[in-house]
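User: Hello, can you help with two protein structures?

Assistant: Certainly.
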Amino acid sequence: MPTAPPLATPLDDDPEPPTVRNGAVPPARTSVARTPTRRRPGPPADEVEQEAEEGAPRRSFGKALAAAAASTVAPGSGHLMLHRTRTGAVILGTFLLVIAVLVILVLTSDTTELLKTALSSNVLLMATIGCVVAAIAWVAVIVRAYLLARPPGLGAVRQTIGVATVVALCLVVAAPLGFGANLANSQRTLLGDLFAGGGGTSAAEAIAKPKLNVLLVGSDAGPDRKGARTDTMMVANIDTKTGRTVLFALPRNIMFAQFPPDSPMGEEFPDGFHNPDDPLSGDYLLNAVYAWGLTHPKMAPEGPTSDPGLNLLHETVAYMLGLQLDYYIEVNMAGFASIIDALGGLTVDVGPERIPIGGITPSGRHVRPDGYIEPGVQQLSGEQALAFARSRTNSSDYARMGRQRCLLQTILTQKSPADMLTNFQSVASATTNSVSTNIPQAVLPALAALAGNGVSLESVSFDPSLPDPSTDDGHFSTGDPNFSYMREVVQDAVNRPPAPPAPPTRAAAPTTRAGRDDDEEDSASEEEQEASATPTSLAESC
């Protein structure tokens, strides 16, 4: 009977038991010690290329920098270099889609639409958030592409070079997007601070109205002034369909300013703003109404602002012109200089004679001018532009009013939205500190649409150049104004067709004409008066 083979135990070296052949047991196997396999010495660790994953290219320091650089140019391209096809395609496709949408929007939108977009707080908020999110995502893609291709065990030098390069590439992307976010947020903040008012008509009503009337006020309050005087007063009548704008300029020295009869000022001054005990007092001219409202707040109406002086001026201007004023814009003239400086100055044709800077104190005393603005075409700083607009030395109030209107025209023609963006922070700061208005944000897009279609500026000035048949010399008198005639001129100006492009005929100062009989002189005078009553194109009159 054959002998059974011994059972294998876990300690056996061989997994199978020895085979019995012809009843003989083979001799035991000799255990041989195994020696570990030697590996060839490789290059230094920072130069080793190791596989990141099956099918992916081997890692290297140069490839890591190249992937980061490619991701900076177009996010996702670095992943494609590393054969991360699916991830890279998604990232790059999203990037190209966003760029395409933005390009299409810019190319298909006109200037009006872009202006309306820039004046929408909601759009600006989304733009701010979008720029921040895009910057974070783009930076993350650059860093991720670098980390995927970077080999392990880099030396200190290469680690430093890699980190510095990636940081620089991230800044290349983050800086412009951060600037865009800051710009959009600053614009949104400016809109919130400057156009926070809700007075006047609503946005829907403003669009529906055929005309909008905006009171423009320039205040000369400052450390050298006692109180405040509004030496610049205009009303802009804006056609909401065509954008045609007629400026009605009111001289500072209009006497007997009128108020509604049932108002406190109308009851206090039934014959107009005047002091019979001191008929030549400058404290009762039109530019003193603002100061009167500040010192007598109970005499002023409650709206449209919290400033009683401005409310009182608003009331008298609306009543004298026979217009319902929808909004106002008040500019501190000292701040006006800062706005001009922020815009980079203005190029102005000063005229044939130099303009004194200063020369008259607030009390009216003549002193030596601080300097002069030379004649001809000059590049004016903010202070020079302000002096050009305010100078009364060797000049008249009416000449100064003409310079102010021309300066306004110059700003509109020389300064584009690009100038505003280039110097936006400075302009925003200067504007916030020197401009106040009750125009609500909701109305801004409608006004921007008018500006985008082009603004046609015309002007009517209630000064002695305006004909007035009720006076002895046939010209308007600021010392004894005909308010009924003022309302007639206003209605005629806003209802007549726009001024033709040809330079209009301007009325000459009253002179004695020799060699004419009375009928010829009266006929010529009527023709000149009719020409003068027509609104004058502001660009052609400068």
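That covers the first. Now for the second protein you mentioned:
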Amino acid sequence: MTAFEIRKFSMREQLPENDDARLKNWPVVYALNGGKKIYVGETLSATSRIRQHQASESKRDMQLVRLLLHEHFNKSAALDLESHLIRWLAGDGKYEVINRNHGIVDADYHDRETYRDAFPEIFEALREAEIFERSIPEIENSDLFKLSPFKTLTPEQALAVEDLLRALRSSLESGAEPRSLVIQGDPGTGKTVVAVYLMKLLSDIATVTDEEIAEDLEGDSRFSEFFTPEFREALQDFTIGLVVPQQALRKSIQAVFTRTPQLSKDMVLAPFSLGKSDQHYSLLIVDETHRLNQRANQSSGLRNRDFGEINEKLFGNDSPLYTQLDWVRQKSDHQVLLLDAEQTVRPADLSRETIDGLVNEATTGGKHVTLASQLRLNAGDEYMPHIRRLLRGEERAPAPVGDYEFCMYSDASQMYARIRQLDAEYGLARMAAGYAWDWATKSEGAAYDFELDGVKFSWNSTDVDWVNSPNALEEVGSIHTLQGYDLNYAGVIIGPDLRYDPEAGQVYFDRSNYFDTKGKENNKKLGIQYTDDDILDYVQNIYRVLLTRGIKGTLIYVCDPHLRDFMARYIPQTERARRLPDRRDSSPIEVEYDVPAHDGSDGLTRSPESARR
């Protein structure tokens, strides 16, 4: 029997105090909506809180009140449901969520999982009431959900945000000289989450009214200490920008900011847009700082010209030593730099020396935060070091990955069939590969780019939001479409650009099978020639990123037979697979097979020579 009910009232009427005692003294979650806006809250006294909202200037456009009353809810369960509903609403996109994001919590409490078991049923009831348009899986697979500022921060992430806010507040109040704040962390530790959350939180602090503080801000909120008149005053005319070097990720964040109160897509900037702008920022937050460029041959002559003109504009001369990081510092008073040196994937990215210098400078100045806990992948904290050692040829033991689907395939067609099966069941299962084949389909009209085990594969047909594009399941994503994105499952092809020498016991780079021209180009501007060992670092970083995209699982196929043999010692092998039909099949076929020994060949069929990607 359903243990909850949803009651609907007009915002113009008083709640019937004598009708139900729970309206005056019971944990209640409620939603106010009017037009395209919605607000979610929780209270122990619905009559008092709704009366307060009815008198509020900020809620004057609200038309309907929905009260959710659950027979067994306590205060903690109500807070938990409130957080879930806010996050789901932000990801659904039907309404503009006007909540501040300071109150999103993920606190543990007695019997939490039992209470959470009821949340999907409550969600479906609200969906029937047309509060939601999409299902929970559809919402949670969307960029609106994944990149939303309405997130439940982990204690580690919350502590990082607190440290950054305190440092910023102290600098503003004391007039001290600003210094860069650095957040360092592996993939999956939540650097982008912190960046987006901080953008929203600072905007909320700057715009919150005294009425809203009295009405909505709980005294035990994690960030309530920052919602003060003094800090709000210090943030007036305080301009904030989020610099995102990768085009695909930047476009996705812009789409989220367009739908978020107090944020706008104009706050999300490309490095070149920042350099050309006449605006000076109080604070610039840089996501993926390691992907900022040093002076190098850019993707076009126009970009080479822009780089020089921006240097002239900002510094009065075009020294080859200026980087896009120098632009960020010149264009802002304060900086928050999020980085991971092991996610640099091209020689044009900031040098390792520059990144290490940033970390050392921040550590010395006491403005360095490390995010250590791996959050995104269900594989646990040992997965990341395991992947790092595998790619370096240094692993000597299997990784404990629990329920994470982590396995190695000897047949690419079987791995692709499994990815299609997982996509049908969970969504967001995609193929990915290192840049070990030409992009023939881009400029020659070829039917495919490379073939493995009878399957013809094509590279991603779009660079922007590829993971959600209509043809994504039929294509293979590269590092330039996947860095910064989450998948449920990733099928990663480690191409013949990465090989293993069994006699030397070393992984090495095969330049003849690496087709990212910019990924191996010497830097004539700075007089740097990149050896195979130099490029090996970038290629290992590329695979490290690709192998950490899958939240629920990562499947691996290795082209080089010697590298395959080495990795097979430390990655579980598939013994059985269920094969869904490929694009030519008319009916599903299920097969069971034992993993065969490889025949010593690469198993590769290459397309004709073609233009470089």
